Amino acid sequence: VSRTMRRECRLGIWPGEGIGPEITDQARMVVDAAAAAADLAVEWVEVVLGKAAIESDASMVPEPARAALESCDGWIMGPYDSGLYPDEWKQGRNPSATLRKSFRLFANVRPSRSPSGDEGSTMDLVIVRENTEGFYADRNMVVGSGELMPTEDLALSVGVFTRAAATEVARVACDLAARRRGKLTVAHKANVLPLGMGLFRDSCLAVAAADSRVAADEIHLDALASALVERPQDFDVLVMENLAGDVMSNLTASLTGGLGAAGSVNVGHEYAMAQASHGSAPDLADTDQANPVGIISSSAMLLDWIGRTKGVGGAQEAASAISAAAEAVVESRLTTTDMGGQLGTREVGQKIADRIKNRR
Ligand code: ATP
Asked: Closest Cα to residue 124, out of 255, 277, 232?
């Protein structure tokens, strides 16, 4: 039976808030350049979420937008700024959390690599963060919130850890480790949270033990914070719960190219969502100063996932072309000011797209 590989994909995009529209414009332009070079047809589906959707549909993620994303292979998610939302919406589940939860994007994959030529010990690792539970009270309950306040002076924050979620995220981490250097580190604090984090650790280690491609070890989160600074070269793939993954991946981002350059992708079984590690940086909005490299790298990770998981021809090629071009541009210091360069958002995007086109 001959199977023709499809060479087309549907990509959703929400431009986002703050610096979002400026940086996602660049990501879209760079993806179009890489797709053209790889003979991949991309159909874009733009959706409205966040503040504009609250105003038009009284929902941060209206049903038509959700359905449009469901018809896509994956999407690019701009940053949201809940500071812009009416008070009664500020506490609710934000657009990003809503999509992570409703599409079961249970793993957030965040790579950090030292720029080449860096002196001393170098970092080349990936943090795989559990995305659906842990201490994130906005998403760890079916009804109500994981936080409660019985009196004005007493608050309880409930962490949720399930064997199912830990097992799923560990599988993503093991698959990734198998494609890299074959090493998985489970980071936890089971010494002080023996039940919750203990279950998380044991579930992850069980997945790794059954996977002959991977050698696993474990580390306490506090020791990890030091080790990431002192001996970053020891780590390949790290898996950890939600809150710890959020904190540690900001640390690894800042130890490498900075927050503006850090890419990430949220993956589930059927969908993936590219999302930069940073937020909406309202201080930089509409100034052409925001670094587009984070969202561009995230978009490359999305295309790589679509190529690998859905068998879409040209997507992995397009992804490698974007990563290589972004890396070359950063190494040539053709960057925004946060990375020590002098270019604007649009110029950086254009330099990356030009490199892709010239490789043809
Ligand atoms: P969130 O909680 O939504 O993740 P945050 O509070 O972590 O947001 P960010 O919006 O990520 O805050 O930004 C923090 C600061 O980092 C910004 O004010 C900005 O100065 C800088 N920053 C973030 N992203 C970028 C970027 N893409 N380019 C340049 N600087 C950035």
From this structure: 232
Q: Is 205 touching ligand 1 by the criterion CB < 6 Å?
A: no
Torsion of Cα atoms, 307 then 312 then 316 then 322, to 10° = -110
DSSP string of 101-151?
HHTT--EEEEEEEPPTT--SS--EEEEEEE-SSBT-TTTS-SSS-SEEEEE
What Cα–Cα distance (Å) separates residue 63 from each residue in 49, 76, 92? 10, 18, 17
In degrees and rounded to multiples of 5, residue 294 shows phi and psi of: -60, -50
> Best of 108, 243, 278 to mutate for ligand 1, by most ligand atoms within 8 A of CB?
278
Mean pLDDT of 318-333: 96
Task: Name the closest-CA residue to atom 26, ligand 1.
Answer: 260
**Cα→Cα distances 357→20, 321, 343, 351, Å:** 25, 10, 20, 10
CA angle 73, 74, 79 (to 5 degrees): 165
Length of the chain: 360
Q: Ligand 1: does its nearest atom lie under 6 Å from the Cβ of 26?
A: no
Q: At residue 226, does pLDDT exceed 90?
A: yes
What's the pLDDT at 3? Answer: 60
Burial 48-63 (b: 16+ CB within 10 A, else e): bbbbebbeeeebbbbe
Strands 237-240, 107-113: pairing kind = unpaired
Q: 275, exposed or middle or buried, with CB in 10 Å at 0-12, 13-18, 19+?
A: buried
| Assigned token pair, 237 | 């793939």
Q: Which of 228, 279, 231 is nearest to 254 (CA)?
A: 228
- Residue 93, both tokens: 């589940």
For 99-113, 125-139, 270-284, 297-311, which range has the lowest pLDDT when averaged over its residues?
125-139
Q: Which atom of ligand 1 lies at the shortest distance from residue 280's CA?
A: 10
Which atom of ligand 1 is least distant from the CA of 19?
27
Query: If we measure between CA atoms, which residue out of 33, 28, 30 comes closest to residue 13?
Result: 28
What pTM was computed for the model? 0.94
Ligand 1 neighbourhood includes 291 CB (under 6 angstroms) = yes
Q: Are 73 and 312 in contact (CB under 8 A)?
A: yes
